[in-house]
Input
Amino acid sequence: MRLALAAGFLAMLAGTAWAEDNPGAVVAAFCKARLAYDEQATLALLTPSLLKVIDEAKARNDVIAKATPDEKPPFGDGIPYQAFPDAAQGCEAGKVTEKPGRIEAEVIYRFRDAPKADWTDRLKLVAEGDRLLIDDIQFANVANGEPDQGLRIVLFNAFDQ
Output
């Protein structure tokens, strides 16, 4: 029922017929990409706006890396597409919530041997044409940072340190 409501909501936002994409399918594709460390598959799920922010952060990171080759640049470990760098054993869709202009879908990272290490991020999904794409990733529990930061904020603030 909730997914049917979400589908109708997104069709209304997009002004077009509902596409094959749905929040659960986007989370499943995101999880598959994250567990495989497939950045290209991750990038294919993002809005052009978020891709532009990532490209700008990568360019700034490269300038810093070249200027200070003996120091680790802000994104020396890559773009943080999840709150923690830990390699989760599992990843699955959680609760889907409708918000004004978007849908938020939980991404639950699981550790079979250490369930207390599980965490949940949220994808902010928007309709782009006839597809749902990720416009931001909300980190509910950011390692060494403020709670409820999103990828966009992390990318922006990384260069102010």
